TrEMBL record:
Domain annotation Cytochrome oxidase subunit I profile: ranges: 276-539
Molecular function as annotated in GO: cytochrome-c oxidase activity; heme binding
GO terms, biological process: electron transport coupled proton transport; oxidative phosphorylation; respiratory electron transport chain
InterPro entries: Cyt_c_oxase-like_su1_dom, Cyt_c_oxase-like_su1_sf, Cyt_C_Oxase_1
Xref: Gene3D superfamilies: Cytochrome c oxidase-like, subunit I domain
GO cellular component, as recorded: membrane
Protein name stated in the entry: Cytochrome oxidase subunit I profile domain-containing protein
Alphabetically ordered keywords of this record: Electron transport, Membrane, Respiratory chain, Transmembrane, Transmembrane helix, Transport
Membrane-crossing segments per the record: 6-26, 94-121, 141-163, 175-196, 208-231, 243-264, 276-298, 310-327, 339-361, 382-399, 419-437, 457-479, 499-523
Pfam families: COX1 (PF00115)
Length: 550
């Protein structure tokens, strides 16, 4: 049977299944709003009281006063439920600290490699004495360090901290999680060494040699087992939407990596198709669900209000799962691949507007009348910025898939700008906010220099703004020059130089923010500043001693 006919038939059958699933859910009442599920992240008495652990002591008061509504009385939290939360936090504290520490290390290494790569684009004679310093290897080291080292470690730390909390169950098999983290980071370190020496598998985002990839696969398997076992032994009735996103993300990335790294299977055109199937899905089915799930927890938790519509959050999850799988094919428009494949990818790219709008409407409804709280809460600032950039990067990606736009932006710096809008302005900023919220409760210590949090935010936000705007303009001009047959190719290179210089300026601000972030993390780990009264790593106190909000 013709492959195009098979794909159309498959899409028709999927639509029928979706129709019957919708009818079934209507009959079962599953689309009726579920305020109980939306409130599961709060212990009794916590709704209506804002909380941001990145704010120390008396600094919480302005946030709580600004969040309080007329006629509202504060109530103490339920000590029994807080005991479960304390036990969950303790069980995950050491694995979380390990993941975040590794993430900080790789963030610094990846940032330096990225800035060096950026400088080489307009200073080509910089650092050319050694093979590992060349642009091709340095850029790949940067990608591996930030995508697998920084983002994946920070994502795993966030997942391992949140799931026991949301399930109100101590983490089962914490030793296996530690072993998994050690295997993953052994693989990342080995991969960076291999790439520096010139040994790669030659596919973008999949440069890690498959022999080294075995360590990463084994690490994820070690982590998935305890996560699923903890899920099975949960003490809550309703699964909060963050659990859906995070458990699915762990399963998706493991499947994606295993299939993409199968040795000797993907060759020729199929290799390119698999490359972009994986390359886009690692963003959409790993980084995105982790970050969106984190926003769905931290943003309502900080402002003390349940998410506006729990059903919209579930709709966003399932439409992301259904529509994202084939989005990566739009990177192959004009290549030697079947036309139906790129058309299917374009259609699914446009369908991604649905989960993005579901998320945006939900967050806007949740924050309606409370946007001003970002003035007081540093974590909320990161979460709101990341959430807005999720909407912007996803909508831009959907329209960028259209052939009329793709023919200009493809093979240009515009695509690089778009990738950083998603991976940095959205994902990384959300992870920064999550770490600022988590670490006081993991390490039993306040952030010693609160003003550094604000400084780091503005350096990162201004840096990525300069980076994105500059590369977007330069990339568009580059694409227009490449399409103009009357102009020599070197014109398309020369036109980008000023914008590449602005890229380095933005990148320098981002690196400065990372140095501040990692330095602040080290100061906290080394016990500068005040001690925190709450459940945390190395804390010998009892659950009953926990103060409000822990």
């Amino acid at each position: 049977m013709d492959s195009a006919l098979m794909s159309l038939l498959g899409a028709f059958l999927l639509s029928l299944i979706g129709l019957f699933a919708f009818i079934w859910s209507m009959r079962r009442g599953l689309l009726v709003e579920n305020p109980r599920a939306a409130s599961v992240i709060f212990a009794p008495g916590e709704i209506g009281r804002a909380d941001d652990p990145a704010l120390a002591g008396d600094a919480q008061q302005p946030l709580r006063q600004a969040a309080a509504e007329a006629g509202e009385a504060g109530h103490p939290p339920d000590p029994d439920e807080l005991e479960h939360r304390v036990a969950a936090d303790r069980s995950s504290a050491f694995p979380v600290f390990m993941f975040i520490a590794f993430a900080c290390m790789w963030l610094l290494l990846g940032s330096v490699a990225g800035l060096t790569s950026s400088l080489k684009l307009h200073m080509p004679d910089l650092l050319v004495n050694e093979a590992w310093m060349t642009f091709g290897r340095m850029r790949t080291i940067h990608l591996t360090a930030v995508l697998y080292g920084w983002i994946s470690n920070a994502a795993l730390g966030t997942i391992i901290w949140l799931l026991p909390r949301l399930l109100r169950t101590p983490l089962m098999g914490g030793v296996w999680v530690l072993l998994g983290g050690a295997l993953i980071n052994t693989g990342i370190a080995s991969a960076i060494g291999a790439i520096g020496s010139g040994w790669t598998d030659g596919m973008e985002y999949l440069e890690i040699p498959w022999q080294i990839g075995l360590f990463i696969v084994a690490g994820f398997i070690c982590i998935i087992g305890p996560v699923l076992y903890t899920l099975v032994n949960r003490k809550v009735e309703s699964l909060y939407v963050t659990v859906w996103y995070h458990v699915a993300a762990l399963l998706w990335i493991s499947l994606l990596f295993i299939v993409a790294k199968l040795p000797g299977v993907h060759t020729g055109v199929q290799q390119a198709t698999t490359n972009w199937w994986y390359g886009h899905n690692v963003l959409g089915l790993w980084f995105t669900p982790v970050s969106v799930g984190a926003i769905y927890y931290f943003l309502p938790k900080i402002i003390g209000r349940p998410v506006r519509s729990y059903n919209l959050s579930i709709l966003g999850f399932w439409t992301l799962a259904f529509f994202y799988g084939q989005v990566g094919g739009h990177h192959l428009i004009g290549g030697p691949v079947p036309g139906w494949l790129t058309t299917l990818s374009i259609v699914q790219s446009m369908m991604m507007i649905i989960p993005v709008l579901a998320f945006t409407i939900n967050m806007a409804g949740t924050m309606w009348g409370r946007m001003h709280l970002a003035r007081y809460s540093p974590t909320l600032r990161f979460m709101m910025f990341g959430g807005f950039m999720y909407m912007l990067s996803s909508l831009q990606g959907s329209f960028e898939a259209l052939r009329s736009i793709n023919q200009v932006t493809h093979f240009t710096h515009f695509t690089v700008a778009h990738a950083h809008l998603g991976a940095y302005a959205f994902v990384t900023m959300v992870l920064f906010g999550a770490i600022y919220f988590m670490m006081p409760r993991v390490l039993n210590w306040e952030w010693p220099y609160p003003r550094l949090i604000t400084l780091q935010f503005w350096l990162a936000a201004v840096g990525i703004s300069i980076y994105f705007v500059g590369l977007s303009i330069g990339g568009w001009l580059q694409g227009m020059d490449m399409l103009d047959a009357s102009k020599p190719f070197m014109d398309s290179v020369a036109v980008t130089i000023p914008y590449l210089q602005w890229r380095s300026v933005g990148g320098s601000l981002m690196v400065a923010s990372h140095v501040i972030f990692v330095g602040h993390f080290l100061a906290m780990a080394l016990r500068f500043g005040p001690q925190r009264a709450g459940a945390a790593l190395f804390w010998p106190g009892k659950a009953q001693e926990v103060l409000y909000g822990e």
